Every structure is written in C-alpha cells, then in structure tokens.
TrEMBL record:
The Tol-Pal system is composed of five core proteins: the inner membrane proteins TolA, TolQ and TolR, the periplasmic protein TolB and the outer membrane protein Pal. They form a network linking the inner and outer membranes and the peptidoglycan layer. It is found in: Cell inner membrane; Cell membrane. Keywords: Cell cycle, Cell division, Cell inner membrane, Cell membrane, Membrane, Transmembrane, Transmembrane helix. This is Tol-Pal system protein TolQ.
Length: 235
C-alpha cells in the first residue's frame, strides 16, 4: 500500500523546471531566482560587449586610415574636434590638446618636458578608454567563479530537506525522494547555466580587449615618436 502511494505521489510530481521551482523550498527558490537573474544579466553584458568591441575595432580602423592618409595633424585635429572620439582618436585628441597648450607656453620657456607631458596625457586617456571597455567585465568573472557554488548550496539545502522528508514519512522509497532530489539538482543546473557562458565570454572579451589595449599602446608610441621628431626639428 505504501509503495503504491509513493508511486502515486511520484507520478503526480511535476518535473518541469517551473514545476520544480514551485515545489522547491523557499531558500532553493531564492537561489534559483538569483541564478536566473545572473544568467539574464550575463547575456545582456555579452551582447553589449560584442557591440562595444566591434565598435572599438571599427573606430580604430577608421581613425588609422585618416591618420595615415597624409593630411596634417592640424587638419585632422580640426576634423575630429566636434566628434565624440573614442579609441585611438581619443588618444590623438588628448595629445593634440596638450601639444597646443604646450606650444603657447613654449614661446617663453622652450619645449623642455613637452614630450613627457604628451606621453603622460596619452597614458591617462588610454587608461580611461580601457576602463570604459572593461566596464562590467568583472561581473562575468564573478558569476563564472561563484555561480556553481551558489547552485551547489541550493542543491545541498534541497537534499537536506529531502532527508528530513524521509525521516518524517519513514519511507526510503526512491519515488518519495526523487521529487526533492530533482528540485535540489535544478539549482545546480541553473548555476552551471549561468557560470559556463560567463567563463567562456569573459575569456573571449579579455583576449579581445588585450588586443585593443595593445593597439592603443602601439599608436601612442607611434604618435610620441612623431611628436619627438617635430620637437627635434624645432630644436
């Protein structure tokens, strides 16, 4: 009779994700909701970063084409002035603004220290650009490292409740404990669902942004060399 009752309970149990959520303990529900929200936010960041990285590459390509087209630095400065400059263009504009300020004071004091100031300005701007590109990337790393453990916490809590149910019912039939174990394992599944994409895309975007950072550094070095030659010519 008890076996038939247990089988009837197992057949009535809803093993869909929604059903498991509705049957779960409140603590497990909180864990599931948190992991689901983390997964949704992770994908939102992923789509944003895809757009941001593609735009950064496109901006760098367009600027380098203009920079090496042969037009003067002054003309390029005037052309880029009204725009919302990013990537290499932002470094160029920051350096040119410092160059113009230095020219005004150099009439009286000479050009000593001009190149160092321009290099420092470009370094600061480069850090700002990388900070803008890397924004919210830490969230992906955090989700990737913590989501499995949060899901495991929900699983452990659910299994504890399953064992308590066994103690109350005094029935160890698998049909009795299966719904509780399924609820518990659903938390682990959600943890992995959030963590795996976060780790994959964190590694991808870290590599992409490292390449963009290297590209900005290369441009800063090239432009610093150009400024150095002009300063040597002015003697």
């Amino acid at each position: 009779m008890e076996v038939e009752l247990a089988q009837g309970v197992a057949q009535q149990a809803d093993y869909s994700m929604i059903g498991l959520f509705l049957q779960a303990h409140i603590v497990v529900k909180i864990v599931m909701i948190g992991l689901l929200l983390a997964s949704v936010w992770t994908w939102a960041i992923v789509f944003e970063k895809f757009t941001l990285v593609a735009r950064a590459r496109r901006d760098a390509d367009q600027f380098e084409q203009m920079f090496w087209s042969g037009q003067s630095l002054e003309d390029l400065y005037l052309t880029l002035g009204p725009r919302n400059n990013r990537s290499c263009a932002a470094l160029f504009m920051a350096a040119m603004r410092e160059w113009k300020r230095s020219q005004e004071s150099a009439v009286r004091s000479g050009f000593a220290g001009v190149q160092k100031r321009i290099e420092k300005v470009m370094e600061v701007q480069l850090q700002k650009e990388m900070a803008r590109l890397e924004r919210r990337l830490l969230f992906l790393a955090t989700v990737g490292s913590t989501a499995p453990f949060i899901g495991l916490f929900g699983t452990v809590w659910g299994i504890m409740n399953s064992f308590q149910a066994i103690a109350v019912s005094k029935n160890t039939n698998l049909a009795v404990v299966a719904p509780g174990i399924a609820e518990a394992l659903a938390a682990t599944a959600l943890g992995l669902l959030a963590a795996i994409p976060a780790v994959i895309f964190y590694n991808k975007f870290s590599t992409d942004l490292s390449r963009i950072g290297a590209r900005l550094e290369n441009f800063a070095d090239e432009f610093s060399a150009i400024i150095s030659r002009q300063l040597d010519e002015r003697g």
